[in-house]
Design goal:
Structural class: alpha/beta
CATH superfamily: P-loop containing nucleotide triphosphate hydrolases
CATH class: Alpha Beta
Largest sheet: 6 strands, mixed
CATH topology: Rossmann fold
Strand order of the largest sheet: 6-7-8-3-9-10
CATH architecture: 3-Layer(aba) Sandwich
Order of helices and strands: EEEHEEHEHHHEHEHEE
């Protein structure tokens, strides 16, 4: 069974103008997949549809065999615990430490303090931030902020981690560090989907690459490159 299925999915924000046009692809459990293409091609729309933030105009999206399109609004938070998302702009709380930024993700679903104390050190160790747990976001580099965002997305042990332009605001060395973490997470069994413009990273990793242009998939290659 495919873990994620997009079945002839179209999306219109303005009637008659398709941001996505009949998009179909599958992602299997444990894969590492890049979604690439120019700005405005529809990459972020794919992410928004997958996490239930938007609904498709046509077609169907399935996650673990269940239709995302049919999930009631009140159950969308459950979906988002199974699909962790890391955004380009970090979305950290400036008034909270690294530890507390990650803890918030667990507190909002009622995880008890003892469990939180057990979970967070392991996650911070995984992303290489053990020594920065008491730092505030203003004391961190861009790469470190993105690692906090990854740690927060991992707090619920999601089945899938989606990185939406996660290296877009950080320098190449920091980007490499973030991608190393994503590879490590993938090696532990989590499916990773990375929407990106970063040609250098895509070409160096030689993973599966789905290219989207003007709302349509133009190529889907194992061991692919940014440009076909």
């Amino acid at each position: 069974m495919h873990q994620i299925e997009f079945l002839k999915v179209s999306k219109e924000y303005i009637p008659g103008i398709k941001v996505l046009d009949g998009v179909s692809f599958n992602v299997n459990s444990g894969e590492f997949v890049f979604i690439v293409g120019p700005s405005g091609a529809g990459k972020s729309t794919i992410v928004c549809l997958l996490i239930g933030e938007e609904r498709p105009t046509d077609g169907e999206i399935k996650f673990n065999g269940e239709s995302v399109s049919d999930i009631p609004h009140e159950e969308v938070p459950d979906l988002r615990r199974k699909i962790g998302v890391v955004f380009q702009d970090y979305k950290l709380l400036d008034s909270k430490t690294v530890y507390d930024n990650v803890a918030v993700a667990l507190e909002v679903v009622g995880t008890n303090k003892e469990e939180i104390k057990n979970i967070i050190p392991n996650i911070l160790s995984l992303v290489g931030l053990t020594n920065q747990k008491d730092y505030f976001p203003s004391q961190l580099s861009g790469g470190e902020k993105q690692r906090v965002a990854i740690a927060r997305a991992l707090a619920h042990e999601p089945d899938v981690l989606v990185a939406d332009e996660a290296t877009g605001m950080i320098d190449p060395d920091s980007s490499d560090g973030v991608v190393e973490i994503l590879e490590k997470i993938n090696s532990l069994g989590t499916t990773v989907i990375m929407a990106t413009h970063d040609e250098r990273i895509v070409d160096s990793l030689k993973k599966r690459v789905i290219r989207i242009e003007e709302g349509k998939i133009t190529s889907d290659q194992e061991g692919g490159k940014y440009r076909v």
